[in-house]
């Protein structure tokens, strides 16, 4: 960790929306009178019926309720499209950059976005989708993904996007979980020069679970697919039959806009529910201020729309602001490690937002891939998803940003809808590895993990909670409000519990130290160790499994699985490979264990609880500091595990 500070240049600060003095003034106002502050900023979007109430929130266990702008009505799609048509109908809304650089990019204007979104909305209506119904999107990074999201918003349907890297089983669970009426997918999804057979995955998922769900299929490659007559519909055929006008539904601010499944420390992923009004205000405001977005700028967030970052910073935030946003279908290393930088040059990108794992991978390929591209349009660089190590930060700053682009290290979560702690590029002196200070209206607190009391000293370390609500906060877990309360409001009463550990330094800067629960962060993808464990134990030859994270140079964290086999099963390399493949098909490639250690026994307390602390230490190759093992039922298993550990650092 580094304590060197990088202040914004005087020139940058002078042209920025927010400088240091303005940040302080606005932050103080946002805390002293949240209703006045958010009442004012609520006006950055268009309301059909303006709100008169701003905030109505309780974090009290048993009656957690989060309401913002609750008597206002609006339509999110109209905010992202229609209200820009008078002035920007010919401006590019979305630049689509395909997987292969040999295929042409598309420039989709706000007018075309309007027409395509309305067509998609009319097609969905024709398939029987009504206000409040759920629609699952399982799509590559193609413009139709944005049309589909906005079409749902337009007719008041709730979308739930499933990342296209998830397996049929994971997809099926999510389709069932929200009782979706329609799944929107594509024939094949090209990525990094290979194609995933998305439609076939959908068929498999629906076969297992519900087989009367309709499917709207986008023709992306023209590849071979299996068709379900009467249930499957081609998007291009249906689109040709409907009008390019569809009146937007008048929605309440608190009507759900989308569900997005995310991993927690226990059980299966939970459906995070976001609102329409508060979410949009927060996504729009953070996109403009955190990236210092100005009209005419080209904004590129490299995330996938399957994650929250894609929701807020490819689609909703930028489009609500009338921005030009890039949607990239490919990967950073295809055809080679200069792809990101070539796309920046080609489309004259001004703000670039990516994950540390991508930067670490690209940094390892050498500087020439960056240096051969003209990056002179870059103004602001951002990172998200995991802590960034100072080496990667410095490389980003010097090699990519040429020392002239402020870096915004944005800390937030699926649950938070938008950034909660981040530098503002014209206001905040950055420190490599720190997400610095809170966004407006956000009150981070550090609690002592055992007593649960707030640590008031400036220098502090403990668990990170948030004291009060902000408009982008999730509202509930889909179909299970009790789980929502239990997960986020029961451990530390009166606060929103983030699940992250955090340190505050003498300057009041925040440094995320990682999850304090059983969630790991692999290549910026969030995963519950419990999910990987339950996939492993579903295999007939596995008796027991325990999964932990361990430090990984590129991925941030790797997946380390301890596996106890059934009595008569021989541990072999073939079986190890089979288990890797098994997890890929149960969850998806992102969940494949990096290391599998055969464990004849797992360290357990006398009451049978697995001591994960010990397993983490062994996986980290740091077994000198195992701590107290005297409560173990059989301490000798620890020696055996150390002896055969897989990560010898
Ligand atoms: C981690 C992604 C350090 C953190 C938007 C959080 C970060 C989890 C940062 C949420 C950051 C996200 N620095 N850690 N800038 N951003 N995290 O829900 O542990 O996929 O709780 O949302 O990622 O991951 P999620």
Structure at a glance:
Helices cover 31% and strands 22% of the residues. By secondary structure, the chain is of the alpha/beta class.
- CATH topology of the largest domain, anyone? Rossmann fold
CATH class categorisation of the largest domain: Alpha Beta
Helix share, percent: 25-40%
- Report the structural category: alpha/beta
Number of strand elements: 30
Q: Could you say which overall geometry the principal axes of the C-alpha atoms support?
A: globular
Label the CATH architecture of the largest domain.
3-Layer(aba) Sandwich
Q: Can you count the helices?
A: 20
Number of domains: 2
Q: What is the mean pLDDT?
A: 96
- How many whole angstroms does the radius of gyration measure? 24 Å
Domain AMP-dependent synthetase/ligase: 82-469
Protein name: Acetyl-coenzyme A synthetase
GO molecular function: acetate-CoA ligase activity; AMP binding; ATP binding; metal ion binding
EC number: 6.2.1.1
Protein architecture, described:
Residues 23-80 form the Acetyl-coenzyme A synthetase N-terminal domain. CoA binds at residues 191-194, 309, 523, 584. Its EC number is 6.2.1.1. Pfam families: ACAS_N, AMP-binding, AMP-binding_C. GO terms for molecular function: acetate-CoA ligase activity; AMP binding; ATP binding; metal ion binding. It is a single chain. The protein is an alpha/beta fold. It folds into two domains: 10-433 and 483-490, ANL, N-terminal domain (Rossmann fold), CATH 3.40.50; 523-644, 2-Layer Sandwich (GMP Synthetase, Chain A, domain 3), CATH 3.30.300.30. It is built from 20 helices and 30 strands. The strands form eight sheets. Strands 12-11-8-6-7-14-15-23 form an eight-stranded mixed β-sheet, with helices on both faces. Strand 1 (55-58) and strand 2 (65-68) form a beta hairpin. Helix 2 (20-32) crosses helix 3 (34-41), helix 5 crosses helix 6 (143-155) and helix 7 (168-177) crosses helix 8. The two termini are 20 Å apart. The model has no long low-confidence stretch (mean pLDDT 96). The chain binds 5'-O-[(S)-ethoxy(hydroxy)phosphoryl]adenosine (WTA). 5'-O-[(S)-ethoxy(hydroxy)phosphoryl]adenosine (WTA) is lined by residues 262, 307-309, 384-387, 409-414, 435, 498-500, 512, 515, 521, 526.
